[in-house]
Design a protein that fits this description.
This protein is an alpha/beta fold. It has helices at about 15-30, 35-40, 125-135, 170-175, 195-200, 210-225, and strands at about 95, 110-115, 150, 160-165, 185, 190-195, 260, 260-265.
């Protein structure tokens, strides 16, 4: 399980040769300059390119040929969302343009962008950005206690972090843990939402909409400096910084930092839950 400052789910010691190779690759990407220098929280630094959504689709022969993940039978009570995606996307992103209102009455203002990886189908980037904004502006969220204000900005505006909906393999790449294609993470100024969790949720949270709200609030919470927490009371709601994707440990699912008009927190720490293999 990973360090609190980055919001990752696991930490591994990597061989010295791999660390040297990673430094060389990151250095090469930084040398490319240009857009990465103006928007350091986007993906140029890890050799992932940004694209503007085209008016017409790219010819099929110019695209990679990923294998589309079939939609399985959903769990009881779930609605099939209709989103399909390859396990490995092309590494380019569509970025939402709409600028939103400032959410929150007081506190430090952070601006964020929203982008969706190319290859994820049946996800309109503007609609996804609206869902992100609605969750982050909710009074039960991080802007509800007066400590933070959040504002969604467009493609070319200055931003403090970027919320990215990615394919499972790109998730592993951006989170620095290629073996994990199941969870989501926050790494630096990137809040990485794994489309597999956005589509399928987790078995122990029956309400997919509430799980999605949790997923956004948990990973953005890491960007706001929050670490993982433990369940404070069996039968009570889980603090949002509990790793609810992996287990509840006696708590009940809860997507919000504020419960009953008060911030809900638990003891600092994390459980040694295994990360499921694959992306489902």
């Amino acid at each position: 399980m990973g360090g609190y400052d980055r919001g990752l789910h696991r930490r591994r010691r990597r061989p010295r040769s791999l660390r040297i190779l990673a430094v060389v690759l990151v250095g090469a990407a930084l040398a490319a300059g240009g857009y990465a220098a103006r928007h350091p929280d986007l993906l140029d630094r890890v050799d992932v390119r940004r694209t503007v959504q085209a008016a017409a689709p790219t010819p099929p022969d110019a695209r990679p040929a990923p294998t589309t993940v079939p939609t399985p039978v959903p769990a009881a009570g779930r609605v099939v969302p209709g989103i399909v995606y390859p396990t490995r996307g092309g590494g380019t992103f569509r970025t939402a343009d709409t600028v939103g209102a400032v959410a929150g009455r007081s506190g430090e203002l952070l601006r964020y962008r929203v982008a969706v990886e190319d290859g994820i189908r049946n996800v309109d980037v503007e609609r996804f950005a609206s869902e992100v904004a609605a969750t982050l502006a909710d009074r039960r969220g991080w802007t509800g206690d007066g400590r933070w204000r959040l504002q969604r900005v467009g493609r070319d505006d200055r931003a403090d972090f970027t919320v990215l909906l990615t394919t499972p393999v790109t998730r592993g790449r951006l989170c620095g843990d290629p073996s994990d294609t199941y969870t989501s993470c926050r790494n630096g100024d990137r809040v990485v939402i794994n489309v597999a969790r956005w589509v399928y949720g987790v078995p122990h949270v029956a309400d997919l909409s509430r799980y999605r709200e949790y997923l956004l609030n948990h990973e953005v919470g890491h960007r706001l400096g929050r670490g993982h927490e433990l369940c404070p009371r069996a039968g009570g709601p889980a603090p949002v910084m509990v790793q609810q994707t992996l287990g509840l440990h006696g708590c009940t699912p809860n997507p919000w930092p504020i419960v009953g008009a008060e911030p809900l927190t638990g003891p600092p720490g994390q459980y040694d839950d295994p990360v499921p293999a694959g992306d489902r």
